[in-house]
UniProtKB/TrEMBL annotation:
Protein's recorded name: ABC-2 type transport system ATP-binding protein
Organism ancestry: Bacteria, Bacillati, Actinomycetota, Actinomycetes, Pseudonocardiales
Gene3D superfamilies linked: P-loop containing nucleotide triphosphate hydrolases
Species assigned in the record: Allokutzneria albata (Kibdelosporangium albatum)
Cell compartments where the protein resides: Cell membrane
MF term (GO), any: ATP hydrolysis activity
Protein family membership: Belongs to the ABC transporter superfamily.
Amino acid sequence: MSDAVLEIDRVSKSYGSVVALQDMSFSVRAGEMFGFVGSNGAGKTTTMRIALGVLSADSGEIRWNGEPITFETRRHIGYMPEERGLYPKMKVTEQLVYLSELHGMTAAAARKAADEWTERLGLTARRNEEVQKLSLGNQQRVQLAAALAHDPEVLVLDEPFSGLDPVAVDVMSQVLRDKCDSGVPVVFSSHQLDLVERLCDRVGIVRSGRMVANGTVEELRASGANRIEVHAPLANYGWADELPGVTMISHLDGRTVLELADGTDDQAVLRAALDTGPVHEFTRLRPTLTELFRNVVTEERAA
Ligand SMILES: Nc1ncnc2c1ncn2[C@@H]1O[C@H](COP(=O)(O)OP(=O)(O)OP(=O)(O)O)[C@@H](O)[C@H]1O
């Protein structure tokens, strides 16, 4: 049996003629933070809704600890829906207690959890305010508290960071990291790729309803184009033009960026650089997650 807590296995879904998901697969393990990224309309929300049972799949399976997920096991997921799901006229604590009770907590435990999470998320002064009177960012904090208060075994969060100020982003990042470190798998979608790169152990890039890249940030970055930056101040423009398998990307102020085709001998490139004079730097350039994402989206547009 795999050690995955939550598995999305070849899930497909169409809305009429719109194919939203095609054989979407990925899994999240205990203590792992999984970032789910993709263009608008790529299928992230649809996947999360199916995982939570809010929406049914046309085919495929969602498994929980190796078994098909059930109504009972779904209650152990903390979910933050994209459309948010709070009752606008309910007060913050009242709302959190009510939602935790729906997940099977006793009134006393729900009350204690509401107090703890409102404090942790900086909402102590708002406990007795109606949700509709809070700013959007504070409503979002309440929404996160609602996902956390019933002590879930997995967290599935649809764009939890959108619209938050930098301090709130830090608070939320720390809460999610702590949850993860305590063994709770966390899946969240986001368009803030720098944040995903910083926080996530594993990232899945979705394109047109399919998972097109899935791995640790390091694995994904290593899979990008093989580029080298050479700082050789005396090198002339075009110094690497004759080297087989090497394409010059840029040359400025003695710094040249070269792209090496698969199998190209980088030591031959280094020797050629040394032939021009001193070499101060010879560095492998790894693409950022944002660059990888752009490549994926560009491939989509070209397809
Ligand atoms: N209720 C619906 N009826 C018809 N089509 C839908 C419905 N919900 C989603 N879709 C379509 O399914 C596809 C996937 O949408 P989804 O909301 O899952 O994408 P997303 O990756 O979450 O996008 P975003 O980043 O914009 O939130 C899109 O083509 C969308 O238009």
